[in-house]
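Recap from last week: sequence in, structure out.
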Amino acid sequence: MLPEIYEDVCNLIEQKKFAEVKQLLQNMHPADIAQLINELPEEFRLLTFRLLSAETASDVLPELYDEIKDELINKIKEVRFLKILDEMDSDEATDILADLEHSRTESLLKKLDKIDFEDSSEIRQLIKYPEDTAGGIMQLEVIAVKPDMKRDEIVEYIKSQAHEVENIHYAFVIDSKNKLLGRLDITKLLWQSAQARAKDIMDTDIITADVELDQEQVAHLFRKYDLYILPVIDKQGHLLGRITVDDVIDVIDEEASEDAYKMVGLESEDKVFTKPLNSVRKRLPWLTLNLFTALIVSSVVGIFENTIQQLSVLAVLMPIVAGLGGNSGTQTLTVITRGIALGELTIHNTFRAILKEIGVGVINGIIIGSFATVIAYFLKGNLMLGIILGAAMICNMFIAGLMGSLIPIIMKSLKIDPALASSVIITMLTDIGGFASFLGFATIFLT
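Predicted structure tokens:
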């Protein structure tokens, strides 16, 4: 979105030229309109959203930041909200309604039933699945044909359903009990003879997703097998719906953002312009935890208080050991956490991955420690102090490699998201390891 559009909209609203704002919005893509509303001052958002047609608003609403989306949903009139829901695909309407209070969702669904909203039954079906599973992100709109249907019959059926189903890459073949039998590639279908039957030309070697599969694993299937469409089935093999690649792009973005937030202690989104009090509420618990881990680290330093009093130069060099160890541990943590997320780590290769990260840590420790030894000697003129600093570096890099790989693996085995709390634990352990090794060696060899 161009900055000029933002300025134009703000100026037109201030001049109360709403017809011109509406005309300007009509020429914009829904994604750009959503970005504009996200950036507008709070007092202009609702007014701008009201100028959109119900059809355009249905495309814009899912793209808004969660806080702004909730704000607009609470402020727009219910009749208007129902019209917007009526324009949405079933999966998008489900996502919107699932975030509301249960009582309000039920009330809205009953009113949608009264206005003959054709997707209300589908929403009721979709809303029962957790939002972070295959069932929660699937679309119920699919092209499904019987095995005995001929090519021309299939083509005519696809034409009749084209207004209901977008992105038609495949038709799925099902039996009389709705069990998935195979898949028909639409392009290949067109090359078949008119008498070719679905059962004779379908591909039976297809990748499927169980309805309860976690959305992160769904994204992994798309990435691994280069999929465009993924059919969703239940335990008995019945076809329930499909997941398209555009839905998975949203999942990948969501999961990556979620991991990034959790790595720094945010369990939910904290946007640039989130209200200050909301940001405080989201960040304070993590910082409180950080305070207690810092107290633990500080108590370790306190053990060597007499050593530091005798050799004040140690206080100058301590942050170097802890800082480099923390950075090394975070690097290892990031590599292992992403390896878990992408499915690269398995039971068979986890031990090898841990050994590799320990080896990398030790080698880095030797190289960095050697530099630190020379630098400390030239700065302070004390060879033993330099050797102690270098040895402490090697010890702390070893700890960083070991703990940076072990902690996320242990958390995953306990069914805890490895991104959550891993970084603060790693930082605490590398700080303790760095201070204990550096001050411990100094106590032994310099006092």
